[in-house]
Amino acid sequence: MEIIENINQWINEHPTSSSIIKYLVWTAFILFVITFLRRLLRKKLPDSTVRYKSQKAIEILGYFFIIIITISYFTGSIKDFALAVGLLTAGITITLQELILSIAGSFYIFFVGVYKPGDRIEINNIKGDVIDIDSVYTTMMEIGEWVSSDNYSGRIVKLSNAFVFKGPVYNYSKDFPFVWDEFNLPIRYDSDIEMAKSIVVKIASETLSEYVSQSITEWSQVVNKYYIENAQVEPTLAITMTDNWIQFNLRYIVDYKKRRYTKHILNELIGKAIQNTEGKVQLASATFEIVKVPHINVKKED
């Protein structure tokens, strides 16, 4: 207590010296905050361009407040530093809003369960499997781009967690780990259409029976949890008449990770079954009818 009284007495007796000390303390505090935030950004932001710009913004903002405090001191108005602290806090919040939003997004992802490691998602037009979630970034193994279907491209993508607040998040595996897929088969008009229908429906039903039985249970849970009506999970076949062929459209449900492989199996089995019909069912190809061949006059000059 005696030490505190002595300090207060000294401050009262030397107001100018105490003001200088306060000025130096606040200046040192601002420099410490600048250094701390620059180191934090260097660790949390892997992108060199964003990291450089963020560090520069923090540095400029900090020096701006030092200038304000210095001017206030020399004009004799350095009495209340609460305003300076408030402005500094507001400036830091604006400068680091993306980082703050990313940290808030990580809490949102964790507590709401938007997605978790192992889920296949699409966010910000990027699709992939989630392999890690930290306080700032979601790390994904990318799918698609220059490779077809749902194959890995080999690129690891880091996305800011702030994107969960900026747009839709498509989750392929949460609640219902199945997707609907389809493909078309062109069948010639002179084929046995009933035989073709029976081949496609039979092979699809046998091949996809396991997915159908599993998806029925999963879908019933989705119906109980959300406001949604029941859906057709068994394979369905729709027929469309075109100018050149009868188009068979097979729609079916499949595990979201086995979409490409399942389509391959169905095409292979249906193709072999059609070949075994000995021409009763034939796949069609594009045909062109030449209506008229124009006359060409060729003159030979001597």
Low-confidence stretches: none
Order the strands across the largest sheet as they lie in space. 4-3-2-1-5
Shape: elongated
Classification by helices and strands: alpha+beta
Q: What's the β-strand tally?
A: 8
User: What is the CA-atom radius of gyration, in angstroms?
Assistant: 35 Å
Give the SSE string: HHHHHEEEEEEHHEEH
- Mean pLDDT, nearest integer? 80
Give the helix/strand layout.
Blueprint: H1 2-13, H2 15-44, H3 48-74, H4 82-95, H5 97-112, E1 120-123, E2 126-133, E3 137-143, E4 152-160, E5 169-171, E6 178-187, H6 193-207, H7 209-225, E7 236-241, E8 246-255, H8 259-275
Antiparallel strand pairs: 1-2, 1-5, 2-3, 3-4, 6-8, 7-8
Helix pairs in contact: 2-3, 3-4, 6-8
Walkthrough of the structure:
With 302 residues, the protein is α+β, with helices and mostly antiparallel strands. It has three domains: 2-95; 115-171, SH3 type barrels; 178-275, Alpha-Beta Plaits, CATH 3.30.70. It has eight helices and eight strands. The strands form two sheets. It has a five-stranded antiparallel β-sheet. A hairpin with a 3-residue loop joins strand 2 and strand 3 (137-143). The longest helix is centred in the first third of the chain and has 30 residues, at 15-44. The chain starts with a helix and ends in a 27-residue tail after the last helix.
